[in-house]
Design a protein that fits this description.
Helix content: 40-55%
Number of helices: 17
CATH architecture of the largest domain: 3-Layer(aba) Sandwich
Number of domains: 2
Strand content: 15-25%
CATH class of the largest domain: Alpha Beta
Strand order of the largest sheet: 3-2-1-12-13-7
Shape: elongated
CATH topology of the largest domain: Rossmann fold
Number of strands: 16
Bound molecules: zinc ion
Length: about 500
Amino acid sequence: MDEIAYITTPLYYVNAEPHIGHAYTQIAADTLARYCRQSGKKVFFLTGTDEHGQKIQDAADARGISPREHTDEMVGKFKDLWVKLDISNDGFIRTTDEEHKETVRSLLNKLYEKGEIEKRSYTGWYCVPDERFWREKDLEEGKCPECGREVERIREDNYFFLMSAYQEKLIEYINSNPGYIKPDIRRNEVLGFLKNNRLDDLCISRPKSRLSWGIPLPFDENYVTYVWFDALINYYSATGYIAPPGVNWWPATCHLIGKDILTTHSVYWSTMLMGLGLPLPRKIFAHGWWTITGEKMSKSRGNVIAPLDLVEQWGVNAFRYFLLRQVSFGMDGNFSEEQFISRYETDLANDLGNLLSRVLSMISKYSPSYDPSRPDGFEKLSEDISGDLEELYGELRFSSVLDRIWEIVKSANVYVERSAPWNLAKSDTERLSQVLTSLYETLGCVASLIYPFMPGASAEMNRQLGIEEPGLGIRRWGDAGRFGNIKKGDPLFPKK
Ligand SMILES: [Zn+2]
């Protein structure tokens, strides 16, 4: 078991407002980070913003303000949203941080001195909004294959990172490290791409005459650094000035990304690190996309889900639960309001919320004694799941973890019906104490198990159960305590 966990999200590009895709990566990374802390690891969970490049300059120009003013404002929006989504990041990096810029320049120098960077004259098709050169054969009907817009024929001198030299080495690396790119479908995609295409060298500069909003190349001040080259380095640069000191945080434990940025991470970033002689991250995990009732989310369709609207209506706990429960992480998911409501009512309000409220009511009403010495089978359920968590979280199988937790919740509900405490209250107080203690302890375990997914609901369960100092670890049988402090409160997930 790794003692430390360094978990990252992508740096979000601040040319537009945050949407559900950003929230999804963020919540998944947060859940993983919270579990790692819960299991006793030292955690550094990093997120941040990508702030250089043409699109940022354009967005600022369009608003008649400086790129810096634009990015400061957008960064505020992202940070606010993370607070509202209960994101527990330990660090927030901005690519405009002086320390980051210095790291980028020093790594560029290192590559340049090693002969990994070369100046060349280049003629190619360039998509201005995407800041990307395309080969003739990549174009689709003469237009940018990524965004479908017009491309420009550009001839200019630029600096290239000699990425093509690493093609075979990267294939070998991926083959010998089956856990490096996950899920397997993405790994196979990258391998297929590498085996069937010749890897180009990577243009890493933009002439200042065309774009000034970027990090100047240390060896040629007439150029700024290509925005991806700058942004990817954040994962490494943050370990030097944002991460808690005294720990070797590099290589990262897991880069969580969306599948749209798989190539930049698995190919650009991996070969950049190879060029620098730095270790590669342990895992790159690319998750899928959300469609809305079967359609791709887009501004023109007017079906963009604003995370905050859902949070305001249903609460942050339900929002986090739904995203990680509804689809197995890595696959694409479909978002529909009916499914959201159904999950809310069935899993959260009925299965979990009702169970808590019923058990606490019965304990108040029948005043049983607290007797954890005869657990009636439930200690086994929570022991079993505890033994599997490391593997399930290690593979980012969030929905499987929730399935397992809900098996416990559902069997507790069946147990209530079958043991009928309302009858035992009249006939067998010893058995009544055994049953209600079992249910109470089970709820204590569940409160700690749901913590990574729904930290707020977990805290409220602890409060109502009267567990005053819940601690961070996963609760074991008999840890929950006494009946004495129970404070029954409002429903955990009120019916809407
Ligand atoms: Zn384009």
